[in-house]
UniProtKB/TrEMBL annotation:
Protein name: Transcriptional regulator, LacI family
Superkingdom as given in the UniProt entry: Bacteria
InterPro entries registered for this protein in UniProt: LacI/GalR-like_sensor (IPR046335), Peripla_BP_I (IPR028082)
Domain Transcriptional regulator LacI/GalR-like sensor: 2-101
Molecular function via GO: DNA-binding transcription factor activity; transcription cis-regulatory region binding
Keywords attached to this entry: DNA-binding, Transcription, Transcription regulation
Length: 103
């Protein structure tokens, strides 16, 4: 089962256990975001670890560009958001394989 984030995966693992299912023997579970708590859960949680430094840099660059274009007022509110085009970014990631997907 692929979960939207690691915290949801923790809940899925608990719910499966409450229903008598075993992870990873019956159901394999993986989260996404790479929280460090996954290394301490039982079973340990496999995750897609997002490069948070790269994500933060991308967000700061976007904010800086908006400020430089004058699209943000002094309170941080967008003043002309309609002129902004959607931006797509590919942020780095890596698979951290742990017990929840083994067997």
């Amino acid at each position: 089962m692929f979960c939207a984030n690691d915290y949801a995966a923790f809940g899925v693992i608990r719910g499966l256990k409450d229903r008598g299912l075993r992870v990873p023997e019956d159901v394999k579970v993986i989260g996404i975001d790479g929280t460090s708590f996954g290394a301490y859960s039982t079973p340990t949680l496999s995750t897609i670890q997002v490069d948070l430094d790269q994500l933060a840099q991308f967000a700061l660059d976007m904010i800086t560009r908006r400020i430089e274009r004058g699209n943000v007022d002094g309170a941080g509110n967008a003043t002309d958001a309609a002129s902004d085009q959607p931006v797509r970014a590919t942020i780095g990631y890596r698979l951290v394989a742990r017990e929840s997907t083994e067997a």
